[in-house]
Every structure is written in structure tokens, then in C-alpha cells.
Amino acid sequence: RGTSFSIRRYCQKTPATLRVSEAVSGAKLGANVKVQGWVRSVRPQKANLFLHVNDGSSLQSLQVVASSELLTLGSAVEVTGTLRKSPRQRQPFELEADRIHVVGDCDPVDFPFKIKERHSLEYIRQFPHLRCRTNAFSSLLRIRSEATTAVHSYFKENGFVQIHTPVITSNDCEGAGELFQVEVKGEKFFSVPAFLTVSGQLHLEVMSGAFSRVYTFGPTFRAENSQSRRHLAEFYMVEAEVSFTQSLEDLTKVMEDMFRSATEHVLAHCAEDVDLFHKHVTPGHRVSPQGHFAIDILNQSSQKFAFPTDWGCDLQTEHEKHLVKHCGNIPVFVTDYPYDLKPFYARDNLDHPEHTAAAVDLLVPGVGELCGGSLREERLDLLKARLGEAGLEDTYSWYLDLRRFGSVPHGGFGMGFERFLQCILGVDNIKDVIAFPRFSHSCPL
Ligand code: 4AD
């Protein structure tokens, strides 16, 4: 009894700790509460000091009214006081502070962000260890977290099983040679050369021999010597594999549904944060499957391209942009690429007079290629011949086994998660949609 009495007294005395997102919506109005966070702005006015405190839980910071104390931008604080209505409509609640405990102070001279200054994404990118303290980048990280949930929700709701494909692998799925090799003190660690994965596709294909719908969502690595605004050396890829496919349409449907569902989820759950990026998109437009030949559209254009547009040439960023524009700035599927441009796993469209593969890319405004996918060659003789031509039959004997033991028509695709965020937020540079960007010559922390 004695104990329960003292607990009640203790509870009465101890203020409830609120997240900033709760406090700004008026939870526990009139009560004595505690809020912990970092100072995002400081404004002295007459005898008072107005602070904005944020803990990453919402775009809105909590206004704290204190009698003058020395506090600097960026300090970590614990504020205790009474939550009350504020005279301002834009922030209806504020915290009248009784006590401010500075948990960690911040040197205002060396701190790279200044009060009342607008910092561009380019500027804050120079401080990868501090940029999460800005409004723009904390919004981005909340959106990214919610978009991750959106992707998982889509696959869960549609009966896909998530597979944790390995980060270390012995295959070069795409065959483009953009591999980071894994070694210990310059020596092989495994019995075979090993690399950071460029794609989880081949491991997903293993699983698609037992599960008709699988997906993976994790980091992938490309030793691409590129500083472009849409390439990273480490990026996150969403990959799906579907068994018993009838045609490429079975894949484009999943690509479109996932894109639409994830976009709508983000817009519904992060409206305030998305607004900060001042961009609105109309998700999920679809071009008719009886579309035009991409190559004809490019050849008939009056635009002068730096790269040639003959049949058999791969699409460059400038071509992708032109195609998206030509179709009215909406997402566009380009299908049936020249066979020789596609990796060994792509299915041969034997019935096409031009030699093509059943491959598809989804191009989107502002970004270009967002997804790449294909039907996979499930016919043992054709796959064996193609691997044989490349001298890879022994390396991929296990992959050929998948065609020997219960092979089914199947296909899949990969979506670059950062490019998805660029597309829905209108962010120009891929380095601004990932917490710690890695690209050639840059791995600062
Ligand atoms: O077109 P990619 O290379 O396709 C594959 O890797 C397939 N194995 C996927 C599959 O079918 N399971 O890459 C897929 C997507 C691209 O469309 C692009 O959005 C993104 O991954 N991507 C990159 N994103 C950022 N930086 C890079 N260096 C990227 N390379 C590809």
C-alpha cells in the first residue's frame, strides 16, 4: 500500500513526456508536460525568448515560450512547462516553459546552419553528419521511412513473400562487370571470388521455383564511375519475381500497381512533408499496350541527340527523357528491347522478326528509367545455348538446374528506390534522397 501511494504521488509530480508531434496537436492541453528535442530556431522578443523545438516526429516544431535564457540554435534541450493555446493560428498550441535543461549545447559559430537563412539541398549535402537537423532533410527521411512501409504493405497485401537475398554473392547478375569485390587484406575469403550484390534477382528466381510471388528490398551496389544525378554506388532496390506469367503484361501490371499504391500511400501519410517539396504528381498513368515503337519516336523527332538512335542502340538518358515528354510527361513503359542488349536471363521473343527480348523498362518524368524487368528464359535449351555462347554454362549450372526441375514461365523487375523518391518529390539529385550517399570518390562517413 505504501508503495502504491508513493507511486501515485510520484506520477502526479512527474510531467508526462510528449513527442513534439503530440504537443503540436494539443495533446494534454493545460497539463504540465516535458518535451525533448533540438532547437530549430531562436527569436528573442521583449522579455521573452521564442524557441522552436523539434524531435524529428513531425515537420512542425513546437513553439516554446521562455523567459530569457541563453540558448543557441542546434542545442539539445529538455523543456518542462504547461501546454497552452497560442494566439497564432498557424501554431495553435505552445509550451510555456517553467524549466529548460540544456542537455547538449551547440556552438553557434561553427554550426553550419544559421537562424533565418534558407539553406539549399546542395548546401546541406556538404554536411552528411548534420543535415538531418534541417527541416527539408528530416522531411525527406520521414517520407523515405513511410515509403519503405508503403512498399512492404503493397507486397504483403498482394500475397508476396519477402526474401532476404544476400548482400555478398558470387554472381554478376547483370553481367556488366560493375562489381565491388569482397576480400580480406587483399585475399579471397571464400573459395570463389565474392562480390557485393548488384541485384537480388537470381536468388529471387531460386525462390520463385517454390513461391509463386516473392520480393526483396535491400541495398545493392554498383561500381559505376558516375557522378550523375541519378546514379549511386550503393542504392536500395525493390525487386519482385512472379511465377506462371503469361506475358509481359503480367509484370507491367504489378509494376504499375506497386508504383501507384506506394505513391498514394506516401501522399496520404506524409502530406505535410511532401508539400515541403512543392511537387505534386499524378500517379499511375498507363500508355496503351498498342503503343508506338520507341525507336521510331526518337528517329522522327527533330531533336538532335548526342547518342545515335539506330535500331540496336541502347537508350540513353536523353532518349528516355524525350520519350516521356513525347507521351505527355507521364510514366511510360518501353518494351521488347533488342535481344543483344539484354543480360543472359532475358526471354527470347522468338516470334518477333526483329530479334528482341521480352524486357520492359518503366520511364518516369524527371528521372528516366525507374524500373527494369523482363520475362526470364525458362526454356532449358535456349538458356543453355546463351550461357554457352558467353562461356558461363559451368558458372550458372545451378541456374540451369532451375530450368531442369519444374521450370515455369516467370518474370520480374527491379525498381530503384531512390529514383522512386526523386520522381514523387521532384528532387533533382539522387544524393538528396538517401541518408548517406555513396558515389565514386565519395564515402565520407
Ligand atoms: O535495370 P537494372 O540494372 O535491373 C536489374 O538489376 C534487374 N536484375 C532487376 C530485376 O529484374 N530484378 O536496375 C533496376 C533499377 C533501375 O531501373 C534503376 O531505377 C535502379 O535500379 N538503378 C540505380 N539506381 C541508382 N543508382 C544506380 N547506379 C542504379 N542502377 C540501377
Automatic annotation (TrEMBL):
List this protein's GO terms for biological process. asparaginyl-tRNA aminoacylation
Q: What is its EC number?
A: 6.1.1.22
Q: Which SUPFAM superfamilies match?
A: Class II aaRS and biotin synthetases, Nucleic acid-binding proteins
Judging by the UniProt lineage, the source's domain of life is Eukaryota
Q: Which Pfam families match?
A: tRNA-synt_2, tRNA_anti-codon
Q: Which GO terms describe its molecular function?
A: asparagine-tRNA ligase activity; ATP binding; nucleic acid binding
UniProt keywords, alphabetically? Aminoacyl-tRNA synthetase, ATP-binding, Ligase, Nucleotide-binding, Protein biosynthesis
Which Gene Ontology cellular component annotation is one that this UniProt entry carries?
mitochondrion
InterPro entries hit by this protein: Aa-tRNA-synt_II, aa-tRNA-synth_II, aa-tRNA-synth_II/BPL/LPL, Asn-tRNA-ligase, Asp/Asn-tRNA-synth_IIb, NA-bd_OB-fold, NA-bd_OB_tRNA
Where do the Aminoacyl-transfer RNA synthetases class-II family profile domain residues begin and end? Answer: 141-437
Family annotation (NCBIfam families): asnS (TIGR00457), PRK03932.1 (NF003037)
- Family designation: Belongs to the class-II aminoacyl-tRNA synthetase family.
Protein name in the entry: asparagine--tRNA ligase
